[in-house]
Amino acid sequence: MSKLIQCSHLIHFFGRCFRNRYVDDEQNDFVPTFHSVKVFHNLGMLPGVVCQLVERWQTEFESILASAVDVDRLTQRVRSRQAGSAGGPVAAGPGRASLPNVGSQAAAFYVAIWTSLDGIMDKLERLTYHCRLLGVTLLKKRESSVSCSTIVRLSESIEPHPSLAELLLHELVTNWHGPDKVALRNTIILLFASTNLETLQSNSPETLSDEEHMVSCERIAELEAQLRVNKGFLGWAAGRLSERLLKISEQSPQVKEALDCEYPKLLKLVIDLGRRVRQTQLHGSWNDSSCPTVGVLEADVVPACLLEAVKPFETAYLSKSLSRLFDQVSMAFSTSHSSVGLDAQELDGIVQSAGNELAYATVHYDLLCKVSRNISKMVALFATKVESLVAVGPDANQVMNPQTISQQNNINLVNLLCSFGTQLGWTCTRRLRNLPVMQSARSEHITSPLEAIFATLETRLNSMCISILQPLLQSISDVIEELMSTMHGEDFVCCQDEDVKPSCSLYMKQLQDFVSRARKQYLSGLSLPPSTDRAASSVSKTGCFSCGEVALQSSVLPYLTRWIDMFLHNISLVRPVSEVGRIRLATDCVEFELAVSPLLSFTTEGALVSFAPEACMKLRAFRPVLLADSDQILRAYMQQKTEPTLNVAQLPPSLVCQHLFSRAPDEIRSPHDTAGWSTTRYISWVLARSDESERLTFLRNGLAAYAHEVQIRQQRQYPAMYLVLRDFLQHFVKQPLKTEVPHKPDGLTPQPSEIACT
């Protein structure tokens, strides 16, 4: 009887040692705890006491969990506090356990829930510490040696001073199938998994027989396997916490709403718990680096068991978060008093809603990535809502009459998209800039939350702006191309009066007037970029058009290249053309660059070379070709070096060859005339083919057809321009012409009878 009383006192003393160690951890002295454990070992009671102690901790946690997360007790606590603060009687009894869903009681109930959960986390931290402390204590050597051994099955002949853990394992492996060994095995695995011990070495004693050696290795391997998958006391408690929260959320709508709607708060509780647990260091009384280090891990890596415990509530939170974002967009468009989208206040409400969702999710990087995907979905919904408001039809595309309401509506929608994308990009950047959570990205995250949002802004909003402007720009392009084709009806042969100052052609004046009118009537309502430097720097980072003017510039760019190519092909095909006519065409090249500039830039001149440098250089390089002699043009290609005034490297050879045909006499018809094509059809054919050899082959066949006609007519002389064209084409087309004209040694033009047919 006295022995039982002594054991009872020892157990209570043992428990007090662990509690005192948590309060006074700074001393890092394991002597009281270790001596307490050694006393139980000397009495032969260590396995049972260890199991009872761990079971007591588990029972204590389950009891605290059941009482802390209980609707009746939480409700009673709220009513007691409210009655006490009001000075009235305290309501009690089962009949008072229901909680109204309105008023201050609901808010007080939510406060009570989070207070209870916070207390659970504190208690779980203490119990986890006790469990880890016990595990490290069992691993400590019984001697004062600074060395520390791993968990192995040892015999006294091999290890004269084994740790208590090794002795426990020795007893466990020796009597593997005992009635109380299952509980002991589970307890040991739980303790050692709580100490973050990674491996169990299996250095078996040499004194064992082969059969005993094989059996011991198998049992040690089984323990190793169980240790690797066991999550320790913290993992066990996290599982119980998850089960309890799921059960109580199914029973109480108030608890479910609190956990679902405020999931980031719950996630922050478990993250803080994991950080405190992992930052706690248990050094013991040794100083050697070979000792098992406990808790020295990266603090920002949250134990997976804690994240899994609250995972069921994440799906509900993300769903509610997406619903809040969608509802904000849908409500803004449904209640808007404007027929062309949203006003500034409604737009600001959507942006702020997205910013708030990001701010709530900054507790963890994974949650932030998932919320950013919700914001990307909201951006897609916004673009869809705007798309439903886009006006289509003749009223939206006409360019002959003043601006219609449909055209004004589309311009306002472009401004709305640009404003929304810019504000959302600024808000997201401001909310997430320099936050520590942004530095915790792991390798599996390919794109950051900001990058994902910016990519959606660029793909959805920019493409929507371009699609809105495209029909109107297509109508403008059709008129521009039609005006350029009218140059073939003008006279480029007659000399200009000496008293008249040289100017551009009539078609160019009409083109300039039309572009200027289209800019003022149909595109003047586009928004301008922000004037601040901060805005200018943010636009490039977000990828979204900063304003309607930037959207216009990006939309016009594909048309711009086509307009320049079409203009160059048109002026290269103008015939007949005199030297004065070529001077007018050279002037038109300069005027054309000025004519399209209003569509490109609203602040600076010379915008063409900035937005389309390659096409602009081609336009500028063709102007000297118009003013150069034919022989000079030929030498520039034949000698493979640039003439002082010619930069033919910027020009496709087929374009220059077309112009050389226009300098030829009427008897050398243009190749497209020989084929029976109109100028419009030929230009369309050329623009549809980027293969320069195919274009040159077409021109070569046209010249060969002329040579064949000369042979049939038995013409005695050829125009000098024929030799220029022949040499030019032979330089690029390797196959000889169907009818070759031999060179004369005296430089005279060959006679038709001297033509050799191949």
TrEMBL record:
Span of the signal peptide: none
Taxonomy, superkingdom: Eukaryota
Domain Conserved oligomeric Golgi complex subunit 5 helical: 36-272
GO cellular component: Golgi transport complex
Pfam families linked: COG5_C
Gene Ontology biological process: intra-Golgi vesicle-mediated transport
Cross-referenced InterPro entries: Cog5, COG5_helical
PANTHER family: CONSERVED OLIGOMERIC GOLGI COMPLEX COMPONENT 5, CONSERVED OLIGOMERIC GOLGI COMPLEX SUBUNIT 5
Protein name listed in UniProt: Conserved oligomeric Golgi complex subunit 5
